[in-house]
Amino acid sequence: LTQDELKRIAAYKAVDFVKSGMVLGLGTGSTAKHAVDRIGELLRRGELENIVGIPTSKKTQEQALSLGIPLSDLDSHPVIDLSIDGADEVDPRLNLVKGRGGSLLREKMIEGASKKFVVIVDESKMVKHIGGSKLALPVEVVPFCWEFTAERLRGVMEGYGGCEAKLRFGENGRAFVTDNGNYIVDMYLEKDMGDLRVVSDEILRLPGVVEHGMFLDMASTVIIAGELGVKIKNK
Ligand code: DER
């Protein structure tokens, strides 16, 4: 099975949790894309009705619109029944790293407002400690004096083994700009960070920081699709 087939299997399994009449948080990324496609298909076939989607990015909004999924937003629906989204890393306590697709702020707002948050991954996303891999831990920052903020992030991480902090660039060779008009500074940590909650608070206290990609204690369920089948882990 290819990685994309595993992503689709996890996504379709998550959509089994969807009931007619639900307000759904629609995730962003290559795994969540399959879930949104599946929801559109079940609506079209009449197997689901009265669904309202709350998209976590402009990209997902466009995909949902093209599928005819009725859309709304958090202002109209401050409580969401179920959100389905992918993740970049999942640790044994279901803490996540998200945001390598750049949508972490709206994802965290919407998934934080959800009664149930189902994460869908292929098995390659499972890690012992989040932030321990050489992959990016995204931080959304205001564009104003982003270098100052990046330096402050490096300062905070000094106490946790150190990190590189680099501005993310888009395909056009210019700074990547999020749906919210902000920049992303990707942190590459030297080693796993131990107590994540402390790090999380210290990062969020920096004035130029908007949000980071550690989703701690947020996932209710993680669906993991692997070569040997699908595993479901609950909080
Ligand atoms: O950027 C994001 O937050 C995505 O949800 C990411 O965490 C997972 O993307 P993928 O399903 O394409 O791996």
From TrEMBL:
It comes from the Eukaryota. GO terms for molecular function: ribose-5-phosphate isomerase activity. It catalyses: aldehydo-D-ribose 5-phosphate = D-ribulose 5-phosphate. Its EC number is 5.3.1.6. Keywords: Isomerase. One of its GO terms (biological process) is pentose-phosphate shunt, non-oxidative branch. The keyword Magnesium does not apply. InterPro entries: NagB/RpiA_transferase-like (IPR037171), Ribose-5P_isomerase (IPR050262), Ribose5P_isomerase_typA_subgr (IPR020672), Ribose5P_isomerase_type_A (IPR004788). Pathway: Carbohydrate degradation; pentose phosphate pathway; D-ribose 5-phosphate from D-ribulose 5-phosphate (non-oxidative stage): step 1/1. NCBIfam families: PRK00702.1, rpiA. Belongs to the ribose 5-phosphate isomerase family. This is ribose-5-phosphate isomerase.
